[in-house]
Specification:
The chain is α/β, with parallel strands linked by helices. The protein is built from 19 helices and 32 strands. It comes from Halobacterium hubeiense.
Amino acid sequence: MNIVPDTSVVVDGRISKRVEDGEYDGDTVYIPEAVVGEVEAQANSGRQTGWDALEELQRLVELADDGKISIKYVGERAGEEDIQRAAAGAIDAIIRDVAMEHDARLLTSDIVQAEVAKGKGIDVEYLEPLERELGELGLEQYFDELTMSVHLKEGMVPMVKRGEVGDIEYQPAGEEELDRETIEEYANEVITTAKRDDDAFVELSEEGMTIAQVRDMRIAVSRPPFSEAVEITAVRPIVKTTMDDYEHADELRERLLKRDRGVLIAGAPGAGKSTFAQAVAEFLSEHDNVVKTMEKPRDLQVGKEVTQYTELGGEMSKTADSLLMVRPDYTIYDEVRKTDDFEVFADMRLAGVGMVGVVHATRPIDALQRLVGRVELGMIPQIVDTVVYIEEGDVETVYDVTTEVKVPEGLMEEDLARPVIQVKDFATGTPAYEIYTFNRQVVTVPLEETDEAPESGVDKLAKQEVEREIQAATRGPVEVDIRGPNEAVVYVSEDEISHVIGKGGGRISDIEERLGINIDVRTLDERTTETAGGGGATTAGQVVTPEVTSRHIILPLSGDRAGETVEVQADGEYLFTATVGRGGDIQVSRGSAIAEELERAIDRERTITVVPNE
């Protein structure tokens, strides 16, 4: 008997099994070149079906060598256009032609192929698709109740992330390195399960990368050329929470149910953002809200009443369009990363859908700042009115975001009033930040002292604006010290003072009125005297004259100071810390970030001082 298998039965390994059972003893198996071309293309694109089929073809060759069957490769090889049109039946048609030409029986587990072949009078044997009992995956042996993720790589010892939320350790889960055969076995098992298990699916399949969801595990399998070796990363949630498990639970519940909200859940990787998002989703669903999710990949562990969506046609914007037709009360967007994601989030929020987005951020305010420049500034409070910052598995900070037309904190004149986004601590009502446009730039100003910012944001803004105004009135160097909330000292060259002040003090008065700040004009020589005497902003130190060469900026120092650690300042502002070289000077390589900052200070004729680092 002559047999022609199509791609479906070559992939599932059915032919070699029948040959081994003696069913096709002495028969001739005609393998269409179109099948070879199709499975080769699948293997080249990183699809496991291609690799499975190639292994089956190799097994058939071995059986032919043993004399159990004869093998002949026949027909036309599938071209690129045929492969691209495989879903439309182009390759199936070539396979049917081969069966007719060789008066052979066509074997297939594709019901459409079988019915078309019967209609053309071809002898067909339809084999029901294999249903395999798929149990626990081999890689699950590395999981226990405290394991969050398993990391397997060819040639490496298995590694796991294990521990309680907020106290996770990355540690080995064995002593022997994984060989290629073992990790390939794990990978094939994952992909086979994802394709055939009712509780699993393939989320993404690209050349070199497959991402599958198997029960509660998200599993990524990478292969060369995408990665330099075969690697498997399996992640699963180690804890499921409810809103009652978090700080501010009562207030947050009331806030979420009062009206549809725009919420950003922020935190560092592994902080527990998605776990909190799951708790929010289930809480909202339990309180008579229609809740959907937008995820890529879909790995939130939510109840069946919450429908999980991924990209539609490769675009989240299409998913959003579909959701707007469904009109959910709330949508959980996990994760919001790229500009397109923020735009989709904003569009859905402005359409009236409650939105809860999950974003990476190392500080609570960073979550809001990621919206700046992506959406219109004045729309931010309408898009996001609540920021929840998660740290070590708990709610660390909650911000309330509103807008108000007012004079920003630290500015004085009423004509400086503008729309200001106010970010307040939800628990205390204390203002934490203000975001507004100043000098055509969007600025975020902290309203409380931090160790990271000894000079307040308002002082920096005021200094920039005063410097800009004075610079417009003089051609020489300008230095500015902010001495208080509405007082500044300006230093200019002696021959520029009269020009800056103007006739009868008119010019400086105009500047003071525009900026809402009192300005005292002094000479640069006075600033140098103040600096040397310790009366200015600069700590007492040695004033140096930099030497700029083609390769370095050299700060020569007097005395034997080799090996001393010092700070380099410009008009009292810290630039960098350095160690004095053996030659008694500091050399900074040009082209570095430090050198560029130093060169800018030199170009603006700022006083460069070297101060002992105490």
